[in-house]
């Protein structure tokens, strides 16, 4: 995978972390009641509101946004690998939980949207673990 492609993926993850993180950390009740927005409710179907937990999740997303943004400013394959690992560790358990509880969402559109977005974040994180694309201008391997 090219360094530029990894920058694009990391930018998408940083934006995700920023939007979700700010909403959950600054307005936890609104996040709980209305995430992901546009009349859908993916969080409030899971259980009772817990401000502490929602704010902590917001902080986690903001932390991931900070690390992702830092990687964008220092584009190196090793840095993108660490960002991918961080997002993957967090989102494997996050996605696994929600995928096991899709039946708590009230309609197929929400179930599909939840499954696609959560799986998408896992796939984006995995893509950052792909080896760097080989530079075709190099004629010899480094020692």
TrEMBL record:
The keyword Transmembrane is annotated on this UniProt entry: yes
Organism: Nocardioides panacisoli
Membrane spanning stretches: 57-73, 80-99, 111-130
Protein name: DUF4383 domain-containing protein
Claim: Transmembrane is one of the keywords in the record: yes
Keywords for this protein: Membrane, Transmembrane, Transmembrane helix
